[in-house]
Amino acid sequence: MGRMDGKTCIVTGAAQGTGAVIAELFVQEGATVILGDVQDVAGEATAARLGARAAFCHLDVSEEADWADVVESTLAVHGRIDALVNNAGILKIASIEDTTPDDLLRLVKVNQLGPFLGIRAVAGPMKTAGGGSIVNVVSSDGVKGMNGVAAYASTKWGLRGITKSTAMELARHRIRVNAVCPEAGSAEMSAPYLPDGVDPVFAAEFNLKQRLKPPKGYRLADHIGDVARMVLFLASDECPTATAGDFVIDGGMTAGYVQAGLPGSD
After folding, report:
1. pTM of this prediction?
2. How many domains, in total, are found in the chain?
């Protein structure tokens, strides 16, 4: 028995990176997964690799018409939508002075408007089905501040607001809405903003290991696996009373810091 047997799920941004890992885990646990992305070639390849219970649909999350098409086709083939994972996102790293209004609005369209439209699109079918689960992949930047990410962080803070408000609205219909907040995601997102010669995978792994002593050989892929397993838990039927929550996976970074020299610092 898989933890997602019989469930039909939509995962956005699933052509590669974190979304592809989530989709693969869902398939392994018995779900049928619709992979939504704007990267058609990569998305088709990922769906083919995952097998018969995975299918790709072109989805620009910022376009309401695309959401309508994906939901309609999913219902036509599978009859229901049990879970939605709003994972698609884009990044901008720049100082506030070097971030333009257009930069901000571009991130808002994908990171904030996208999940908003997705929730609107699946709410009706989930009500009809008697419930469901929506998981928004946010970021640790959505629960703290950091230099260089004013535009990105603001969209992720906003997505947490959408999460909590919609959770309150939809709870009476047995639809749960939660946020998963990872410290690091797909290396492809940060690679364009790192200095020449810096490996984005190494940089993310180093950042995690500065705060936590993970098992020997722990890699960025393992962290993304942690994120996927949390998403799986929330999308499954294993936590029927968990809603409006922020599930942070960041090596304890947002909890505070260790003050050198005080008890418990060694």
Report:
1. 0.91
2. 1
